[in-house]
Amino acid sequence: MLKPGLKSGPVWALGAMSGTSLDGVDAAMVQTDGETIFAFGDSAYRAYSPTEEAVLRDALGKWPGEVGQEVLPLVQQAHVDVLSRFEGAQIVGFHGQTLAHDPQGRGTHQLGDGEALAMHLGLPVIWDFRSADVRLGGEGAPLAPFFHFACAKWMGADRPLAFLNLGGVGNITWIDPSRDRPDQNGALLAFDTGPANAPINDLMMQRRGQPCDRDGALALQGTVAQGALELFLDEPYFRKIPPKSLDRDAFSDLYTLVHELSDADAAATLTAMSAAAVLQAMEHCPSPPERLLVCGGGRKNPVMMAMLRAALDAVVDPVEAVGLDGDMLEAQAFGHLAVRVLRGLPTSCPATTGVAAAVAGGTVSWPDGSSR
Ligand SMILES: Nc1ncnc2c1ncn2[C@@H]1O[C@H](COP(=O)(O)OP(=O)(O)OP(=O)(O)O)[C@@H](O)[C@H]1O
Ligand SMILES: CC(=O)N[C@H]1[C@@H]2OC[C@@H](O2)[C@@H](O)[C@@H]1O[C@H](C)C(=O)O
């Protein structure tokens, strides 16, 4: 039985997301009934230390049973550190750390123990958001689109628009805000665009021992290798009809294309590849979005943003232009989705993950140790 406050009406949900770029855990409060956003609240960030990041990097591609014993406690502690800073949360949406994603094969793996977290925090924790979708034939990603739909309503959008998340991987959500519900036919189309920051981060780590190309400073000094860019765009993924999703390192073979290049030219070329992948994505949208609202760390890379603006026939703005927080959108998304799971509302549908029918994924764990 749900407590009366959780059954209906707005709930303060605390969402936590640790993304594929392995930089740390974002956490943010959102007041929502799972459909309408009522308010946004506090947020916090807990960076992974270089040592922690190296441990996670080493665990990438691993499935349950293959992961070293030190990895789960690391992920749990990072979440406890950041989630303990909040007051007033009624439920928690806990994404976990994606280590591997192979929806047509072994499934999808988000490391994290929601049961332990619920007992520790004394709050209901909703987690394992992606598995049910994958079991039912979906991609299990992206899942933020149902939240993007709520954001479009929150900002009063009346024309088709798109949210673009530039994290480790990029994903886009095309939205027709005239529809009433996100799972209604024609309301959404969503899919992963291609690599975004992950290859740039990997390059920076290998060549410079730095976590990212801050402000695109290195890419700015380089020249894009057109030949490498064209070979990259030959990748069949770009012509595949969505929904479709990617593992963090799905295209890692293609980065041999930049091996011979100078550091600056390689950074410029990888940045251009991420932007070009977004241009390819436009072909799949039901109608060209007039406006692209960009969230995720890539929006802070001026070279990436300039390349997008040059390539796209759309207004390209960071989500801050409409009053949203581009660093916290995904954390807020998993707070919002947590309320949907709790209330049995769908979190994905054929147009967002390719799942056969709308599905409410996620496990609910209670502070007494029980789960459903
Ligand atoms: N000032 C900046 N200049 C260039 N790149 C930046 C800057 N700030 C952040 N980034 C990039 O953004 C990344 C973090 O993005 P974000 O937090 O959106 O990723 P994520 O949530 O881990 O990924 P995903 O959405 O794929 O799960 C950093 O690793 C870095 O590559
Ligand atoms: C399997 C997985 O964790 N996928 C992430 C990743 O990071 C970006 C992109 O690839 C997206 O598909 C997804 O995250 C966002 C939050 C989503 O599910 O909407």
From TrEMBL:
Keyword vocabulary terms for this entry: ATP-binding, Carbohydrate metabolism, Kinase, Nucleotide-binding, Transferase
Membrane recorded as keyword: no
Pfam families in alphabetical order: AnmK (PF03702)
Entry binding sites for ATP: G19, T20, S21, L22, D23, G24, V25, D26
UniProt-listed Enzyme Commission number(s): 2.7.1.170
Alphabetized GO MF terms: ATP binding; kinase activity; phosphotransferase activity, alcohol group as acceptor
EC primary class: transferase
Entry keyword Cell cycle: no
UniProt-listed GO biological process terms: 1,6-anhydro-N-acetyl-beta-muramic acid catabolic process; amino sugar metabolic process; peptidoglycan turnover
Catalytic activities: 1,6-anhydro-N-acetyl-beta-muramate + ATP + H2O = N-acetyl-D-muramate 6-phosphate + ADP + H(+)
Pathway where it operates: Amino-sugar metabolism; 1,6-anhydro-N-acetylmuramate degradation; Cell wall biogenesis; peptidoglycan recycling
Domain of life, source organism: Bacteria
Entry similarity comment: Belongs to the anhydro-N-acetylmuramic acid kinase family.
Main function: Catalyzes the specific phosphorylation of 1,6-anhydro-N-acetylmuramic acid (anhMurNAc) with the simultaneous cleavage of the 1,6-anhydro ring, generating MurNAc-6-P. Is required for the utilization of anhMurNAc either imported from the medium or derived from its own cell wall murein, and thus plays a role in cell wall recycling.
Record protein name field: Anhydro-N-acetylmuramic acid kinase
Organism: Roseovarius atlanticus
Lineage: Bacteria, Pseudomonadati, Pseudomonadota, Alphaproteobacteria, Rhodobacterales
